[in-house]
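Render this sequence as a predicted structure.
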Amino acid sequence: MTSTIYLAVNAVIYLVFAVWCVIQPAQTSAFVGLQPVGGAGRSEFFAVYGGLEFGLAVIFALAAWRPGLQTAGLLVAACTYAGIVLFRSAAFLTQSAPGGNAWYIFPLEVTMAVLGVILLLPRLREL
């Protein structure tokens, strides 16, 4: 049950962010510190951020409601968040002006990474 809730929360988080990217791409890109340049930059932000976030929302929703997909969903979550936390940590340490709103979302990313790993560990034999 805990894995189902975790995966469903991920689905909601990514769906909300995908919708925000589509409805207000200028606000979303400003929030994350990106400055899309011209039509190509706006199109790329819209497609990659909106599309990738939506795709992850679908993966997590399917994994939440299909017990046979939960281990795969947890693997995707653990790897995704671990990668984000690793690279955001490196950015905090190496970039001249890191952070901005990233400081606000970093604790959520760390929490979701830790929870994902904790939920995945007992299922490693299934992989």
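Summary. The chain has a mean pLDDT of 91. Residues 2-126 form one domain.
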